[in-house]
Amino acid sequence: MPSLADIERILRLSPVMPVVVIDAPEIAPDLARALLAGGLRTIEVTLRTPAALRAIEAIAREVPGIAVGDGTVLSVEDLRAAADAGATFAISPGATPALLEAGVHAPIPYLPAVATASELMQGLARGYHCFKFFPAGAAGGTALLKSFAGPFPQARFCPTGGITQETVGTYLALPNVLCAGGSWLSPPEALAARDWARIEALASQAARRT
């Protein structure tokens, strides 16, 4: 069983975590290979389509060099399904008492999300120290993360939501940010065209962020 510290190791693999929506599971391995070729070693596949779990299974089976996360985990059942699909880790857009409890004992590392100081305190009280900060742009962006640093120096974050190629550097410059999530790395038109070279180029640019 993984420890709560294992999620930090995963978040440190790459400065930017691609957040992807996949409608066709057969393209998932090629997408993962393009991201990996560009230098990114993590990917979050959101549970927003019926194909998501099959896409995770395909990536886990065919592209072992990338850590595939199951995103949009809303329930304990979703968390179990993530592990069963072969996900390396799981992420929620928020957290519930049930998920915080289940995440401590889950077979894969779990990253809950917070948007307020109260939510952060609840997660810290359960033993977590790494959190997704979502929706980052709408919840206060870098200003709120800077404010969290004072009373919660032990907390580390992966901000996601409203972050762009142009703004990601401002998040990564903060000492309490381990990585940032972004959807710009897999544009819908590039996925539709199977333009893996473009996605690899975007990944390469993101991988050079520090």
Q: How would you describe this protein?
A:
α2 (28-37) crosses α11. The two termini are 31 Å apart. This protein is α/β, with parallel strands linked by helices and 210 residues long. The protein has a six-stranded parallel sheet. The protein has a single domain (6-207), classed as Aldolase class I (TIM Barrel, Alpha-Beta Barrel), CATH 3.20.20. Helices cover 43% and strands 16% of the residues. The protein is globular. It has eleven helices and nine strands. β6 (113-114), α6 (117-125) and β7 form a beta-alpha-beta unit. It has helices at residues 6-11, 28-37, 52-62, 76-85, 97-105, 117-125, 136-139, 141-149, 168-172, 188-192, 196-207; strands at residues 16-20, 42-46, 67-71, 89-91, 110-111, 113-114, 130-133, 156-159, 180-182.
Secondary structure category: alpha/beta
| Tally of helical segments | 11
| Neighbour order of strands in the largest sheet | 5-4-3-2-1-9
| CATH class call | Alpha Beta
CATH topology: TIM Barrel
Estimated helix fraction: 40-55%
Report the principal-axis shape: globular
Number of strands: 9
**Count of structural domains:** 1
Radius of gyration: 16 Å
Biggest sheet statistics: 6 strands, parallel
Give the low-pLDDT segments: none
| Quaternary assembly | single chain
Share in β-strands: 15-25%
CATH superfamily (homologous) name: Aldolase class I
Separation, N- and C-terminal Cα atoms: 31 Å
Order of helices and strands: HEHEHEHEHEEHEHHEHEHH
CATH architecture: Alpha-Beta Barrel
